[in-house]
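Onboarding guide, step 5: your first structure request.
Type a short instruction followed by the sequence, for example:

Predict the 3D structure of this protein.
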Amino acid sequence: MNTSNDIEQVDIKRMIEIVLERIVSIVIITIIFGMITFALSEFFITPKYESSITMYVNNRRGGTEESMETKTLSSDIVASQQLVPTYIEMIKSNNVLQEVCEVIKEKGVDEEITVGKLKKMLTVEAVTNTEIIRVSVRTEDSSTSREIANTIASVAPGKIQKFIELSDVRIIDRAKISTVPVSPNVRNNTILGALLGLILSISFILLKELFDVRVKSADDLVARFKYPVLGTIPEISVSYDESANNENVYQ
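The system replies with structure tokens like these:
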């Protein structure tokens, strides 16, 4: 009644035995893959540095400047949060980024920068459930990342206020130089490489065993054909005395 379950248990047991029999090879392959990914991450992938600015956006209500600064209603907060996606798209717009590129070229930070290149460096996102926008710039040079981020902080608020009346965009934090690269993550890459080597080595060994149709023992015959083995031919070793044969020849 439980024949299929017994067979499945035997197969799983056999698979574990196969893996344990080749555990040394599996460990070696795992270490090799980990070392390869470590070397690639450490010596061949150019590190990138990220600098960020944070901006506060506000939906200004009508009234005096004093009333706007001292009184903030919940409806204003909700309205500001609803405007955040619009502000994000405006920051990423060609109109804003083109002026950012021009300022960057004037400063001599990057003479070859274009809007297309800048968009690839740029990440603009809203801080969850707030009216705060984070703008991050990632390049291969930490100083360049900081200068571009701070240029956006200088250009974007004025450009946005030209398009959205009664809007208020203020810079909370300006960008600073980051001394630690954000990519590549050498530690994570090494771990992932080692795991890949572990999975590939185990998969290769099990697949090789699965597709190996050779009969290696009487147990293989029983497992394949479900009939008992009536007898086996023993292995006979014959020793050959070469010196005795040479004496007979000379006689």
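Each response can be followed by summary notes, for example: Residues 3-43+185-245 form one domain.
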